[in-house]
Amino acid sequence: MTRGIYFLNKGTIKIVYIRKGILLYTIGSNENVQFQLLEALLEEIDLKFNEMYAVDVILSYGKVGETVFKDFTSKVNEIIEKAEELINPVDVFCRVCKRTLPILVKKSLIKNATSYPVPVVFVHAGHAVVVYVDQNFVMRGVELVNMNG
Ligand SMILES: [Zn+2]
Q1: Distance 30 CA to ligand 1 centre (A)
Q2: What percent of the chain has pLDDT above 90?
Q3: Rounded distance from Cα 95 to ligand 1 centre (Å)
Q4: What is the 91 CA–ligand 1 centroid distance (Å)?
Q5: How far apart are CA 145 and CA 54, in angstroms?
Q6: What predicted TM-score, i.e. pTM, was given to this entire model?
Q7: Kind of pairing between the strands at 87-94 and 23-30
Q8: How would CATH label the architecture of 3-81?
Q9: C-alpha angle 42-55-29 in degrees, rounded to nearest 5
Q10: Most CB contacts within 10 A, which of 49, 89, 93, 105?
Q11: Sign (positive or negative) of CA dihedral 139, 140, 143, 149
């Protein structure tokens, strides 16, 4: 199955896409929301969507009416209300900003990691830091990184 995750930063909006086979999930927010939170929400939406619907069977009918998935809207709102359960804030002191920043880390990222600490890059205010997070969501190190793209 083709899988992919795409991030888009467009002016004051952020968009994340997750492609999973023939499905494409997308979520957007203002620039203040961290990508890890958006990604965590999409992962949960994908999980619940596939729990609720036999997607392969439904889509095999060919023509699918837009009302088929309409009950899912309330599920999405439920997922957003419980967003805090999907992420953990990690306090990180940024030497450039000279203040402590709460960096949000997806619980699934730490849970599914194959080695620790897990590096997470946090881009903010025109610079980036890499934060090393252990299995207990404690910061084990932070470094300023150079960016190129
Ligand atoms: Zn900073």
Answers
A1: 19
A2: 70
A3: 6
A4: 12
A5: 44
A6: 0.88
A7: unpaired
A8: 2-Layer Sandwich (3.30)
A9: 20
A10: 105
A11: negative
